[in-house]
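Sample pair:
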Amino acid sequence: MKRWFRVFIISVFAIAAVSLVLIQFVQTRRTFSISDNMFNVSVSNAMDEAIQQLNGEMNNATAHSTPAFNYQDLDSIIYESLLINGIDLHPTVGLYDGSQGSFLYSTDPNREDELELSPYRYSFQPAGVVSANKYFIILGFPKAELFLQHNTDIYVYMTLFLIVVIATMFFISLRTISNQRKLDQMKSEFINNMTHEIKTPISTIGLACEMLRDDTVSQDAESRANFIGIIADENQRMRVLVETILQSAKMSNKNFSINPKPIDINKIVEHVMQSFKLTINNRNGRIDTILNAEPPTIVADELHITNLLYNLVDNGIKYSTNEPHIVIETERQNGRFILRVKDHGIGISKADQRHVFEKFYRVSTGNVHNVKGFGIGLNYVAQVVRLHHGEIKLDSEQGAGSTFTISLPLD
């Protein structure tokens, strides 16, 4: 996915998300306003019903006297009426004498000053008789706004939650598409690199065979031995390449298993070293071995350990710009077998070290991409180590070479 297209998609999504939030904000304000009006209507209807009920219970009222009734009934009747009309709030209730400018009764005397300013004021005529005194039932809803806000907040939270879910799924999908495209690109590069990697030994073998057909070359024992060595070396190289690809594909299967048995690791090191002898000599390099593992026997899969070692040495040679110098060490340490393969090549940057064991990954800095390969060797090495329940560590510095340390359990 091209960068400009990815930026375009993210920008469109961001604009859509912000627009959705703004629309929801405006809608919430409208909902809050409608809820506020509905709340006032519900309170008004509840008070109409409550006053009618109170008038029916006031039997001792006179035109110029204080209403005579149980004030506790005032609070309970109003609360029941509010519940019937869908308002589950217990307000502060006061009976106010407008002529005297004082409360005859309130459920919370400490809040009478605040209650006097409440907009929820309802005229009250005891028993329906017009009185010279102006009586009012006043309600105080200190949590009315919170009540309305709670109802509208539910929709806001749901919207925000859905936006977060959509955004998460969007970025996951975008990342998946990007990774898939990257994987497709790596696979294409892998096929191209593999084709060139295999064509090289085939061409070399073909050229060596043509030279051996020449009578002047075939009659020279030294030249003949040299070309036969080239054929054997390139054949071994191609065999390991094909084996690495096939075994790496098999290892992707969760049911794949290795065939461990007692092997002499020092002999395997010597065998691998001999395989690279011609290549090393042609580049005026050398392979040093420090075989301190005694006894040299470990329990491991011979085929995969051999291929593992071949890949590490091959990498060391390929990524050396001058005469390659490879050092292979074996030792026993704290109940584990340690194998080190050290080269003095171009090294690997810190950024690339985190990815070198990923399938199809190839280092792309400096002159590394000029080297043949298809980014599967180190991934194969890591899988072999994992199947042997071991650990692999990379120490590298650009310009100073790389050291791969493999630790395998001896039990």
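The chain has eleven helices and eleven strands.
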